[in-house]
Write a structure and sequence with these properties.
By secondary structure, this protein is of the alpha/beta class. The chain has one domain (9-247): NAD(P)-binding Rossmann-like Domain (Rossmann fold, 3-Layer(aba) Sandwich). The protein has helices at residues 18-29, 42-54, 69-83, 107-128, 145-148, 154-174, 191-198, 216-227; strands at residues 9-12, 33-38, 59-63, 87-92, 132-141, 178-185, 238-241. α1 (18-29) runs parallel beside α2 (42-54) and α1 (18-29) crosses α8. The longest helix has 22 residues, at 107-128. It is globular, with a radius of gyration of 17 Å.
Length: 248
């Protein structure tokens, strides 16, 4: 199936590894040029960019700190310079978590998690909007924790729940010219996912119908579909990609 992404230009945040890197590579395989945005891990970002170029597409690396509104604006200005002032896709994937029991969760840690995961998504939505051409798509990335909560995830779950609702509001504001949708992954084989499994005594994998956690590419496929013209009638949706966790 041709997703209609050939020749389009995409920005992917958190693209130096995990779901973001898998998304960047898949977008390139579908014919898109990719801005590989990262916070730390410049060398890893360059590897992803090299893979995009090996697929015959253009790639650029841009450093970006989601928690800093001014840095987000600076980075998006750089993106506009690199791409000729236009984007067709923005995948707002970057985020981080620190596992902390609610009883010991301090305000500074709460603020850091919410600022990066929720406020950072807002900063990027606001900054990237002028670059997006008519017919463009924004895909945000939330988490299964946003819908179910999770031990030691109060700050992260609350922030990601905010991302889901921010997505719905943005979809209303930007339609019909720009589609905004959300992917809500379950446990995935990333640094954060493996940290989550190691940091709890719950049998998290046992709650999945799949009996295993997701590979990053399995989440990326859904992101790329939503970013593509193939999803032209999908607005304000949240796609749960969680291995059937809610059905256990």
């Amino acid at each position: 199936m041709d997703l209609g992404l050939h020749g389009r230009i995409a920005l992917v945040t958190g693209a130096s590894g995990g779901i973001g890197a898998a998304t960047a590579r898949l977008l390139a395989a579908e014919g898109a040029d990719v801005v590989v945005a990262y916070h730390r891990g410049a060398d890893a970002a360059e590897v992803v960019a090299a893979d995009v170029r090996a697929a015959g597409r253009r790639a650029w690396c841009v450093a970006l700190d989601m928690s800093d509104a001014a840095d987000v604006q600076r980075a998006v200005t750089d993106v506009g310079t690199l791409t000729g002032g236009a984007l067709d896709v923005a995948v707002l994937n970057a985020g981080f978590n620190i596992l902390t029991p609610l009883a010991t969760l301090e305000p500074d840690e709460w603020d850091a998690i919410v600022r990066t995961n929720l406020s950072g998504t807002f900063y990027l939505l606001r900054a990237v909007r002028p670059l997006l051409r008519a017919g463009s798509a924004i895909v945000t990335v939330a988490s299964v924790a946003a819908e179910t909560g999770a031990p030691h995830h109060a700050h992260y779950a609350a922030a990601k729940a905010g991302v889901i609702n921010l997505t719905k509001s943005a979809a209303r504001d930007l339609a019909p010219a720009i589609r905004v949708n959300c992917v809500s992954p379950g446990l995935t084989r990333t640094t954060m996912g493996e940290m989550t499994v190691a940091g709890t005594t719950d049998n998290l994998v046992g709650k999945l119908l799949t009996g295993r956690i997701a590979e990053p590419e399995e989440i990326a496929r859904v992101i790329v579909f939503l970013a593509s013209p193939a999803a032209s009638f999908v607005y304000g949706a949240t796609f749960d990609v969680n291995g059937g966790r809610d059905l256990r």
